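Review form for a predicted model. The reviewer records the input and the model, then writes brief findings.
Reviewer: anonymous (R2)
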Amino acid sequence: MKVGLAYTSTTPELIELVEREVKKQLGEEAELISLQDPSILADVRDLGYVFAAPAARLIEMYMKQILAGADAILNICSSVGEVADCVQDVARYLGVPIVRIDEEMCREAVRMGKKIAVMATLPTTLRPTTNTIHRVAREMGRKVETIDVLVDGAFGLDQDNFKRLMAEYSGKAADRADVILFAQGSMAYCEEYIAELYRKPVLSSPRFGAAALKKALIEKGAVKC
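Model under review:
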Protein backbone atom coordinates (compact mmCIF):
# COMPACT_ATOMS: atom_id res chain seq x y z
CA MET A 1 0.00 0.00 0.00
CA LYS A 2 1.21 3.49 -0.91
CA VAL A 3 0.02 6.77 0.56
CA GLY A 4 0.88 10.28 -0.57
CA LEU A 5 1.85 12.98 1.90
CA ALA A 6 1.45 16.43 0.31
CA TYR A 7 3.41 19.15 2.13
CA THR A 8 3.53 22.86 1.32
CA SER A 9 5.88 23.60 4.20
CA THR A 10 7.79 21.35 6.53
CA THR A 11 9.74 21.23 9.74
CA PRO A 12 11.51 18.12 11.04
CA GLU A 13 8.96 18.03 13.88
CA LEU A 14 6.01 18.08 11.49
CA ILE A 15 7.41 15.33 9.27
CA GLU A 16 8.16 13.17 12.31
CA LEU A 17 4.69 13.70 13.78
CA VAL A 18 2.83 13.00 10.55
CA GLU A 19 4.84 9.94 9.58
CA ARG A 20 4.59 8.50 13.10
CA GLU A 21 0.81 8.89 13.18
CA VAL A 22 0.38 7.47 9.66
CA LYS A 23 2.56 4.45 10.46
CA LYS A 24 0.67 3.96 13.72
CA GLN A 25 -2.59 3.75 11.79
CA LEU A 26 -1.40 1.83 8.72
CA GLY A 27 1.62 -0.13 9.93
CA GLU A 28 5.30 0.08 9.18
CA GLU A 29 4.83 -1.60 5.81
CA ALA A 30 2.97 1.40 4.37
CA GLU A 31 5.05 3.13 1.71
CA LEU A 32 5.02 6.92 1.99
CA ILE A 33 5.22 9.07 -1.13
CA SER A 34 6.23 12.35 0.46
CA LEU A 35 6.34 15.43 -1.77
CA GLN A 36 7.08 19.00 -0.74
CA ASP A 37 6.72 22.38 -2.42
CA PRO A 38 7.40 25.26 0.00
CA SER A 39 6.74 27.79 -2.78
CA ILE A 40 3.02 27.01 -2.52
CA LEU A 41 2.69 28.30 1.02
CA ALA A 42 5.17 31.11 0.37
CA ASP A 43 3.00 32.43 -2.48
CA VAL A 44 -0.18 32.12 -0.42
CA ARG A 45 1.45 34.01 2.46
CA ASP A 46 2.68 36.78 0.15
CA LEU A 47 -0.72 37.46 -1.41
CA GLY A 48 -2.84 36.53 1.59
CA TYR A 49 -5.04 33.92 -0.09
CA VAL A 50 -4.90 30.88 -2.37
CA PHE A 51 -4.76 31.89 -6.03
CA ALA A 52 -4.39 30.00 -9.29
CA ALA A 53 -0.64 29.31 -9.47
CA PRO A 54 -0.10 27.74 -6.00
CA ALA A 55 -3.40 25.86 -6.26
CA ALA A 56 -2.30 24.42 -9.61
CA ARG A 57 1.06 23.35 -8.19
CA LEU A 58 -0.66 21.57 -5.30
CA ILE A 59 -3.01 19.76 -7.68
CA GLU A 60 0.04 18.83 -9.77
CA MET A 61 1.57 17.34 -6.61
CA TYR A 62 -1.54 15.20 -6.11
CA MET A 63 -1.35 14.00 -9.70
CA LYS A 64 2.33 13.06 -9.33
CA GLN A 65 1.48 10.98 -6.26
CA ILE A 66 -1.39 9.29 -8.08
CA LEU A 67 0.89 8.50 -11.02
CA ALA A 68 3.40 7.05 -8.54
CA GLY A 69 0.72 4.62 -7.37
CA ALA A 70 -0.70 6.28 -4.27
CA ASP A 71 -3.82 4.57 -2.91
CA ALA A 72 -4.79 7.73 -1.00
CA ILE A 73 -3.31 11.16 -0.31
CA LEU A 74 -3.13 13.17 2.90
CA ASN A 75 -3.13 16.94 2.36
CA ILE A 76 -1.00 18.29 5.21
CA CYS A 77 -1.44 22.07 4.91
CA SER A 78 -4.59 23.70 6.29
CA SER A 79 -3.91 26.97 4.45
CA VAL A 80 -4.65 25.18 1.17
CA GLY A 81 -7.19 22.67 2.49
CA GLU A 82 -9.90 24.13 0.30
CA VAL A 83 -7.87 23.10 -2.76
CA ALA A 84 -8.26 19.50 -1.58
CA ASP A 85 -12.00 20.13 -1.26
CA CYS A 86 -12.30 21.38 -4.83
CA VAL A 87 -10.75 18.24 -6.39
CA GLN A 88 -12.90 15.68 -4.60
CA ASP A 89 -14.92 14.82 -7.72
CA VAL A 90 -11.68 14.08 -9.59
CA ALA A 91 -10.41 12.06 -6.62
CA ARG A 92 -13.54 9.92 -6.58
CA TYR A 93 -13.34 9.38 -10.34
CA LEU A 94 -9.70 8.29 -10.08
CA GLY A 95 -10.37 6.15 -7.02
CA VAL A 96 -7.71 7.92 -4.92
CA PRO A 97 -9.15 9.64 -1.83
CA ILE A 98 -7.60 13.02 -1.00
CA VAL A 99 -7.98 13.53 2.74
CA ARG A 100 -7.59 16.83 4.57
CA ILE A 101 -5.46 16.52 7.68
CA ASP A 102 -7.71 18.92 9.61
CA GLU A 103 -11.33 18.10 8.75
CA GLU A 104 -11.96 15.36 11.29
CA MET A 105 -10.20 17.45 13.93
CA CYS A 106 -12.68 20.26 13.19
CA ARG A 107 -15.57 17.80 13.57
CA GLU A 108 -14.24 16.67 16.93
CA ALA A 109 -13.95 20.28 18.09
CA VAL A 110 -17.61 20.87 17.17
CA ARG A 111 -18.58 17.73 19.11
CA MET A 112 -16.69 18.97 22.16
CA GLY A 113 -17.89 22.54 22.56
CA LYS A 114 -19.69 25.61 21.31
CA LYS A 115 -16.77 28.03 21.66
CA ILE A 116 -13.67 26.99 19.75
CA ALA A 117 -10.39 28.91 19.93
CA VAL A 118 -8.53 28.51 16.63
CA MET A 119 -4.78 29.11 16.96
CA ALA A 120 -2.46 29.67 14.01
CA THR A 121 0.88 31.29 13.29
CA LEU A 122 -0.24 32.41 9.82
CA PRO A 123 -3.30 34.54 9.02
CA THR A 124 -3.78 32.53 5.81
CA THR A 125 -4.48 29.44 7.94
CA LEU A 126 -7.11 30.99 10.19
CA ARG A 127 -9.84 31.62 7.63
CA PRO A 128 -9.75 28.19 5.90
CA THR A 129 -9.82 26.49 9.30
CA THR A 130 -12.69 28.56 10.68
CA ASN A 131 -14.55 28.04 7.38
CA THR A 132 -14.16 24.29 7.83
CA ILE A 133 -15.35 24.42 11.43
CA HIS A 134 -18.50 26.32 10.49
CA ARG A 135 -19.13 24.05 7.50
CA VAL A 136 -18.92 20.85 9.53
CA ALA A 137 -20.97 22.44 12.32
CA ARG A 138 -23.69 23.19 9.78
CA GLU A 139 -23.52 19.61 8.50
CA MET A 140 -23.81 18.35 12.09
CA GLY A 141 -26.72 20.67 12.90
CA ARG A 142 -24.81 22.60 15.55
CA LYS A 143 -24.01 26.24 16.20
CA VAL A 144 -20.51 27.22 17.23
CA GLU A 145 -18.49 30.36 17.83
CA THR A 146 -14.86 30.56 16.74
CA ILE A 147 -12.25 32.71 18.46
CA ASP A 148 -9.33 33.56 16.17
CA VAL A 149 -5.92 33.58 17.85
CA LEU A 150 -3.03 34.63 15.61
CA VAL A 151 0.23 33.77 17.37
CA ASP A 152 2.13 36.76 16.07
CA GLY A 153 5.85 36.23 15.56
CA ALA A 154 5.81 32.46 16.09
CA PHE A 155 6.46 31.36 12.52
CA GLY A 156 10.00 30.00 12.24
CA LEU A 157 10.86 30.10 15.97
CA ASP A 158 12.83 27.35 17.70
CA GLN A 159 10.84 24.92 19.88
CA ASP A 160 11.48 26.54 23.26
CA ASN A 161 10.51 30.05 22.16
CA PHE A 162 7.60 28.68 20.16
CA LYS A 163 6.18 26.90 23.21
CA ARG A 164 6.63 30.04 25.31
CA LEU A 165 4.72 32.14 22.78
CA MET A 166 2.03 29.48 22.38
CA ALA A 167 1.50 29.47 26.14
CA GLU A 168 1.16 33.25 26.18
CA TYR A 169 -1.39 33.39 23.37
CA SER A 170 -3.31 30.31 24.54
CA GLY A 171 -3.94 32.09 27.82
CA LYS A 172 -5.73 34.89 25.98
CA ALA A 173 -8.38 32.46 24.73
CA ALA A 174 -8.48 29.67 27.31
CA ASP A 175 -11.00 31.35 29.63
CA ARG A 176 -13.42 32.02 26.75
CA ALA A 177 -13.14 28.71 24.90
CA ASP A 178 -14.49 25.20 25.48
CA VAL A 179 -11.76 23.71 23.31
CA ILE A 180 -8.50 24.95 21.75
CA LEU A 181 -7.75 23.88 18.19
CA PHE A 182 -4.33 24.14 16.54
CA ALA A 183 -4.85 25.06 12.90
CA GLN A 184 -1.39 23.91 11.78
CA GLY A 185 0.03 20.42 12.13
CA SER A 186 3.43 21.89 12.99
CA MET A 187 1.97 23.11 16.30
CA ALA A 188 1.08 19.60 17.46
CA TYR A 189 4.09 19.02 19.70
CA CYS A 190 2.67 21.71 22.05
CA GLU A 191 -0.68 19.93 22.42
CA GLU A 192 -0.11 18.17 25.75
CA TYR A 193 1.82 21.13 27.18
CA ILE A 194 -1.00 23.62 26.53
CA ALA A 195 -3.69 21.16 27.66
CA GLU A 196 -1.95 20.62 31.00
CA LEU A 197 -1.16 24.32 31.42
CA TYR A 198 -4.75 25.54 31.00
CA ARG A 199 -6.75 22.38 31.76
CA LYS A 200 -8.57 22.64 28.45
CA PRO A 201 -9.05 20.11 25.64
CA VAL A 202 -6.48 20.85 22.91
CA LEU A 203 -6.71 19.34 19.43
CA SER A 204 -4.00 19.09 16.77
CA SER A 205 -4.35 17.59 13.33
CA PRO A 206 -1.76 14.83 12.67
CA ARG A 207 -3.50 12.09 14.66
CA PHE A 208 -6.92 13.02 13.28
CA GLY A 209 -5.61 13.21 9.73
CA ALA A 210 -3.93 9.81 9.97
CA ALA A 211 -7.11 8.22 11.34
CA ALA A 212 -9.18 9.81 8.55
CA LEU A 213 -6.67 8.53 5.99
CA LYS A 214 -7.08 4.99 7.31
CA LYS A 215 -10.87 5.33 7.25
CA ALA A 216 -10.73 6.43 3.60
CA LEU A 217 -8.53 3.44 2.73
CA ILE A 218 -10.91 1.08 4.56
CA GLU A 219 -13.88 2.49 2.62
CA LYS A 220 -11.91 2.04 -0.59
CA GLY A 221 -11.16 -1.57 0.35
CA ALA A 222 -7.39 -1.05 0.38
CA VAL A 223 -7.09 -1.70 4.13
CA LYS A 224 -8.93 -4.05 6.47
CA CYS A 225 -10.57 -2.74 9.62
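Findings: Residues 123-140 form the longest helix (18 residues).
Further findings: The CA atoms of residues 47 and 168 lie 28 Å apart.
Recommendation: see findings above.
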